[in-house]
Every structure is written in C-alpha cells, then in structure tokens.
Automatic annotation (TrEMBL):
<dbReference type="InterPro" id="IPR018551">
    <property type="entry name" value="DUF2007"/>
</dbReference>
<dbReference type="Pfam" id="PF09413">
    <property type="entry name" value="DUF2007"/>
</dbReference>
<feature type="domain" description="DUF2007">
    <location>
        <begin position="7"/>
        <end position="69"/>
    </location>
</feature>
<protein>
    <submittedName>
        <fullName>Signal transducing protein</fullName>
    </submittedName>
</protein>
Length: 74
C-alpha cells in the first residue's frame, strides 16, 4: 500500500533534524527533502540551503502540524 506524504514544515536542516527527533518520539515517521544537498551531490546547484522540506504521512498530518507549531511558533 502506498503512503501519501504531506509537507508540514520548510526550514533549515538543523530545524528539520530537531523536528524529526521530536516526531520520532511521538511515533511519527518523517522524510526530509533537501534539494540543496541533492544538487551538490549531483554536481550542480540544487536549491536554497534554508529550504529543506519535512514530510509526514497524511494520516499524521494534524498531529505533526501541532508539534511543529508548538516547537517553532512563527
């Protein structure tokens, strides 16, 4: 069965790693998409270093967004 992912946060790699640890403790898996790092590995410019994206399964979107807002109220 395919899992539908949804974007819950965009920010620096450090913030993403911090959020991933918190989400993991809450039992929520997440995936990081870093176009900048991917571009460097491929040998070209791939994006902005502060535009790393964090995705979670759609079934955990509401809970994950609450955690993100509590962690980084903007």
């Amino acid at each position: 069965m395919d899992t539908i992912l949804t974007l819950v946060y965009t920010g620096s790699d450090v913030n993403i790693q911090f959020l991933q640890n918190i989400l993991e403790k809450a039992g929520i898996n997440s995936i990081k998409k870093n176009n900048y790092e991917s571009g460097l590995r491929a040998g070209f410019y791939g994006g902005d270093i502060n535009q790393v994206q964090l995705f979670v399964p759609k079934t955990h979107q509401s809970e994950a967004k609450k955690i993100v807002q509590a962690t980084f109220p903007e």
